[in-house]
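re: ur question from yesterday

yeah so i grabbed the chain u mentioned. its 193 aa long if i counted rite. heres the sequnce exactly as i have it in my notes:
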Amino acid sequence: MSAPEEEFYSEERWQNWLDRLREEELDPEDEDSARLLLNLQDDVAIAVAKILKAYDDDELGQDEGMDELADIREVVLAEPAFDDEDKLMLVDGVQTSLVAVFYSAEQYVADGPADEASVDEYVHAAVDAESEEDLDRALGLVAAGGTRVIDGDDLDMTLLEDVEYGLVTEWVNGLDSLQSALSDPEVIEDDDD
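ran it thru and got these C-alpha cells back, copy pasting raw so excuse formatting
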C-alpha cells in the first residue's frame, strides 16, 4: 500500500486557527464568533472524514489509519497557549466536542461500526450514563453511536432538544460536525469570512 500523497492535517493548520482566535474579539453570543469556532471544529472533522474515507477506500491500512488519527488528535487536543481565559474556555469546548470525533473514528477503524443499537439508542444511553456520572461509559456510548454515523446512519440533532447541556451534548455536537464532513468533505479555508 502506498502512502497517501497528502497530509491530512498539520500542526501549522491548527496553529493558524488558534492565531486567528487570538486576534478576534470572541463573543460566543455573536454569530461571527460562533461561526469561527464551528469552522474550527468542522475543519478538524473534515480531516478525520478524509482519513476515514481513505481507510474505507483501502488507501490506508488499519495501522496507518490509527496513526493518522493519533497524529491529529495529539495536535488538536494539546493544551493551547492562550492568555485569555475566556478564549481558552471556548477552544476547550471545541476540543471537548472533537474528543467524540476521534474516539468514534478510532473505534470505527479498529472494530468497524458498533452494531448493538441505533445512533439514537446509543446517545440516549450516553445521556443516562452521564446522569449517573459514569463519563467513561457515556463517552464510549457516544463513540459507538459515532461509528454508526461513520457507517452512514443519520444523527438527528433534535434528539438532544430535551437534554440538559453537558458533556454528551458537546460530544454529540462533534458527531454532527463529523456527519456533515462525511457528507460533504470540502475544506474550510482558514480565511473564510
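noticed a couple things. Residues 85-111 form the longest helix (27 residues). also The two ends are 39 Å apart (CA to CA).
anyway ttyl
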